[in-house]
Design brief:
By secondary structure, this protein is α+β, with helices and mostly antiparallel strands. It contains ten helices and eight strands. The chain is about 60% helix and about 15% strand.
């Protein structure tokens, strides 16, 4: 991801884009680029250094000059390749989500009892997902059983039961409840 950010930063500068366009035509050395772009050689060197750091160009010493070339591999990448996060970024995101989830659960539960049902939708969903863990998959429950299980967690079992249904964490058909696979 850091490499992608460097590439986007490089492409955000008009002088660098002009340098890239000239190097696409043919490899060049600093003085020739400076002359073509009407920039000082030190300015061109500065921009080439940034482009090299991003991997967009590379250099090769040929006789008296350092020649600069386009890195075709970088320019053959699609925009999707540049913005797609890698697995480690995804695992970091998953860790953050799990930390947030734990924080919410710790805030709303005390000794296995629900203190209150959150108003904020995201937190409410997390709390309800925690409650639904008390129900087995593929097992059918009568309303009375559902009420007893929820009552062990919080006295307001009616509200919580309705919330589990509305969040599609449980289904109800003819007074029979079942945990969904969500």
């Amino acid at each position: 991801m850091e490499k992608s950010i460097l590439i986007f930063k490089c492409l955000a500068d008009q002088s660098r884009i002009n340098i890239i366009n000239n190097l696409i035509e043919t490899p060049m050395y600093v003085e020739l680029l400076a002359e073509r772009l009407k920039l000082s050689p030190s300015t061109v060197s500065f921009h080439l250094k940034k482009l090299e750091e991003a991997g967009m160009v590379y250099s090769n010493k040929e006789q008296y000059y350092v020649m600069y070339y386009i890195n075709k591999e970088i320019f053959n990448l699609s925009l999707l390749d540049l913005v797609k996060t890698n697995a480690s970024d995804e695992s970091i995101q998953e860790e953050r989500e799990e930390e947030y989830r734990k924080k919410v659960v710790d805030s709303f539960f005390q000794y296995g009892k629900l203190k209150s049902l959150p108003v904020q939708q995201k937190k409410r969903r997390i709390v309800l997902e925690e409650i639904v863990k008390n129900f087995e998959h593929d097992k059918l429950y009568m309303e009375k059983e559902v009420n007893i299980i929820i009552a062990d967690i919080n006295d307001d079992f009616c509200t919580i039961r309705r919330a589990l249904i509305s969040e599609k964490l449980m289904e109800r058909e003819n007074g029979v409840y079942k945990r969904t696979n969500t």
